[in-house]
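FAQ

Q: What does a record look like?
A: Structure on top, sequence underneath. For example:
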């Protein structure tokens, strides 16, 4: 859109709802780029006692919190309901019972205010969290690393997604959480592994799963098994292993593969920017190493601030704007799709 056209339009305010996993979040985003409010209520404390997310409990918690979070997001944004332009909601991928809560709330709000509805792909949201940070330049490559996904995505032009590679087994965040559990660290384990790895002065040697030459895919289950084997052997021999050394060895192996493949994808696809996205993007080791390699290779890297890395609704509002400006609205019988395809969601 030309700048003059933008200046002549009233601002677009999208109210966005995200409930795909264990965060209930509502945000108001202006013109796809400015966060007017972004309220996130995490259920981590509830799920910690179970060592992971319990879908039925997550769904019930979303029901309990969604209404007041919606009110809070609108209040903090200081925007009258009649000035809103559209209602956006994550409709996949995710836990179906969790997605449904956000979708019912979004449909109710859109119906009562007579606003268009925009269904958003959760990973498109993670990628476009970066649009809340700075202007994007295409083509670009995004490295998406979360609890449910590990993808290298080629974005040829605005909102046009092609998956270059993905995990063949565990998502990277899932591997962090499973290794953390083996080290008896609390859920979610990613931040604890990150801290231990940061403090450790040594690391144990662990394998790297490069897969076939040229592949952009990932595999983390072998690495997780290797960690468990090392821990078991040490236990059987009565040796005490330093958890920090294990955490650092595991994290180094993960980072090596992620960084190498993401940088190669960016170079081979002529990317003008490399974006980091998803909960694991909060990892300090990954941010530092990716930053170092991108500088070496002359690739501009964009990394969102921590609060925009983990699940939040502002990123959903940013992605929804792509559809809003093209008038691509969703029908009111929009379904929750636990396995929604990112490529098909392209604008
Ligand atoms: O994107 P996200 O909030 O939720 C999903 O869509 O999955 O990602 C959550 C994941 C969890 O597995 C968590 O352990 C991981 O992100 N995570 C981290 C860090 N902070 C969160 N992993 C490694 N290092 C971190 N600092
Ligand atoms: Zn996520």
């Amino acid at each position: 859109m030309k700048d003059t056209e933008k200046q002549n339009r009233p601002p677009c305010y999208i109210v966005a709802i995200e409930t795909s996993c264990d965060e209930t979040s509502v945000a108001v985003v202006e013109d796809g780029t400015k966060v007017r409010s972004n309220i996130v209520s995490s259920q981590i404390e509830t799920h910690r006692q179970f060592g992971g997310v319990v879908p039925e409990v997550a769904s019930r918690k979303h029901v309990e919190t969604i209404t007041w979070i919606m009110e809070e997001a609108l209040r903090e944004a200081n925007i009258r309901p009649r000035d809103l332009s559209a209602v956006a909601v994550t409709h996949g991928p995710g836990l179906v019972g969790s997605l449904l809560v956000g979708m019912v709330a979004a449909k109710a709000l859109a119906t009562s205010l007579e606003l268009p509805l925009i269904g958003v792909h959760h990973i498109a949201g993670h990628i476009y969290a970066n649009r809340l940070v700075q202007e994007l330049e295409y083509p670009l490559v995004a490295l998406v690393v979360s609890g449910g996904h590990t993808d290298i995505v080629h974005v040829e032009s605005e909102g046009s997604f092609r998956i270059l590679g993905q995990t063949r087994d565990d998502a990277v965040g899932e591997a962090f959480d499973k290794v953390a559990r083996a080290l008896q660290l609390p859920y979610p384990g990613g931040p604890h592994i990150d801290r231990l790895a940061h403090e450790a002065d040594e690391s144990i040697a662990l394998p790297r799963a490069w897969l076939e030459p040229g592949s952009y895919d990932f595999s983390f289950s072998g690495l997780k098994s290797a960690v468990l084997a090392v821990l078991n052997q040490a236990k059987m021999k009565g040796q005490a292993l330093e958890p920090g050394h294990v955490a650092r060895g595991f994290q180094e192996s993960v980072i090596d593969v992620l960084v190498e493949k993401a940088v190669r994808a960016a170079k081979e696809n002529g990317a003008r920017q490399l974006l980091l996205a998803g909960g694991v993007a909060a990892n300090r080791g990954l941010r530092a190493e990716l930053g170092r390699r991108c500088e070496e290779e002359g690739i501009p890297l964009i990394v969102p601030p921590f609060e925009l890395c983990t699940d939040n609704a502002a990123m959903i509002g940013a992605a929804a704007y792509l559809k809003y400006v093209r008038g691509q609205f969703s029908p009111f019988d929009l379904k929750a799709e636990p396995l929604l395809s990112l490529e098909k969601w392209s604008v």
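Q: Is there anything notable about this one?
A: DSSP finds 13 helices and ten strands in the chain.
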